[in-house]
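Let us begin with a simple case.
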Amino acid sequence: MNDLDWLYARQRFGVHPGLGRVRDLLARLGDPQGAFRTVLVGGTNGKGSTAATLAAMLAADGGRTALFTSPHLTRFAERFVVGEREVPPETVSAALSRVRPQAEALGATFFEIVVALACSLFAEAGAEVAVMEVGLGGRLDATNVLDPLLSIVTGVALDHTEILGQTVELIAAEKAGILRPGGLAVTGVAPELLPILERSGADVWALGREAQFEGRPLGWDGWEVELSSPAGSVTFRTPLLGMHGARNAALAALAAQRLGLGAAALQSGAARVRWPGRLEKLDWRGREVLLDGAHNPDGARALVAALRGLDVERLPIVFGAAGDKDIKGVVAELERVASEVIVTRAQLSPRAADPGVLAGLFSVPTRLAGTPAEALDLLPPCLSLVCGSLYLVGEVRPLLMGEVGEERERWQ
């Protein structure tokens, strides 16, 4: 079994929260995380776009910046970016072959191995600072073995409640675990959750309290954002769509300010960020298809608000979801904009819910498609939406772009 097949097979062993194994694994690898500084980005939604925007701003400032995100859409190597370029697959494979024996000896989980792999790759590439997206929660997530110079909690909503807790307060406490006493932190959480984050002893700046932002929509071109904080005021443009996209960009800019970056780096980085699969519009066979990874009610609500802001009232939706999500909550939001729904499932995700069960949750006209490709063929010649699961989006995107996706099962 080759190294990548071996790694993917470890997904079946699930998630085992805790820091001991990944700490031991990194020690066996020579503690590569000590070669660079770290920013941790946690939160229920918006982690990826916030992390990508901050990394682009840091790169625009002239430093050698790395970015770790999870999960990937279509290629495993997407998770590892250095100098705004994806690390070549052959470089990832070579590093994984060195990590594997140590990981096997410790019984490390899939995500622990991926985090250790990221640290090794970034150290070998000479990264000066790495923006690391937190996986699940925060306190016991494998990324939390790193010592961040700044931590970000984008926001808190109900998701992964079986692991993180049944209330937003419990989830906020888990996510606050990435903050450090006396350390720098920025957040976009609701005001009532701020005291939970501040119990960490971190120096927290919050959107809506220390910092204010205003957004001006630019249609499909994104947003113009004006941010004011104790570090100064700056106006910039971002191609991220939706008010939540503008908010995530503002949060990244606030973090960049706290790290000492100037307005020019913020403006340049924000303008060139790209975050595939999240309100991404692609042309396909003479029609337009919008991709979005909204997979929980909070994300679906933000998606619907973004569509309304773009003057989209109703559109056909291709929908598939993981069976362990609050599917009814997502459906309730999407029905506000769905003209019809074509239900399918991600072929490579054993977690995907039965399309027949999903179809019964919608009150709008619904059709079934056996595969994502068949679902696309059923779309009418107008703007359409694919959403509900990042794994579904990850399978649809290469179909739209004429690319070949990976053919391995996806659990994480």
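The second case is a distinct protein. As before, the sequence precedes its structure tokens.
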Amino acid sequence: MTQAPATSKVWFITGASRGFGALIARDALLRGDRVVATARNPQTVVEQLGDHPNLLALKLDVTSETDAVNAATQAVSRFGRIDVLVNNAGYGLLGAVEEASADEVKKQFDTNVFGLLHVTRAVLPVLRAQGSGHVINVSSIGGYASHAAWGVYCATKFAVEALTEALSAELAHTGVRATVIEPGFFRTDFLNADSVVSTANRIAHYAESVGVMRQLMADANHKQPGDPEKLASAVLKLADSANPPLRLALGADTVARVQKKNQAVEAELQQWMAVSMSTNHDDVAV
């Protein structure tokens, strides 16, 4: 077991070979923390982060529950504990809800939802036994407000939001915290072909909605407003917080979208209030 200062954190990060995962791992290592960085091919992690004494690069395909359990076991064997779990692994599916095949939808949920659950279930017993820890689940602006052409992807991120909200309540008395982060559009490789999969089926009737979004995404690649380096710094601040939030919006575009949706939901609630309130039994006081 590697010895480290008492204030040093142990991170367990999925999807750590590139993007947000690699940047968070890098910054954690730079400040003296220990990092378990996982990927389907752990060599890609080493190529990104180097051969660091505080780094444990592990094979983890999040769709494999066996991989998740093995990685958590190796993490504790090496570093003795886990303080921060970052469920970062995932990808996007671009296409209309009707265009998405059953197989494409299943693969999307297998990684973004069931993969997150595999890893969370593998790590939570460690955190609960410690009486401390922080689960940070990476959602998206699309986890709070859905968009045309992103329906299936957003459905997975809505699921991540719901799971995190429940986890936060379930774990509150244990000393373990749960936060869902909601990045907007950041200048990563997310819109590259190896991070976003387009549906094989294309339906002409969706040209004015989904087709427009496809072109917007192609034009926006590597021009997104968010700075990934600053996101990594924000996640480290989040992990250091004694009172972390349930949700953390990251990016001015996410903040604007959250505010717009909240206003729209409140306006619609008020517009239909009479109907909403009319459905109780008559003997129930309102």
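Strands lie at 10-13, 34-39, 55-59, 84-87, 92-94, 133-138, 176-183, 196-198, 247-250. The chain is about 50% helix and 15% strand.
Keep these points in mind for the review questions at the end of the chapter.
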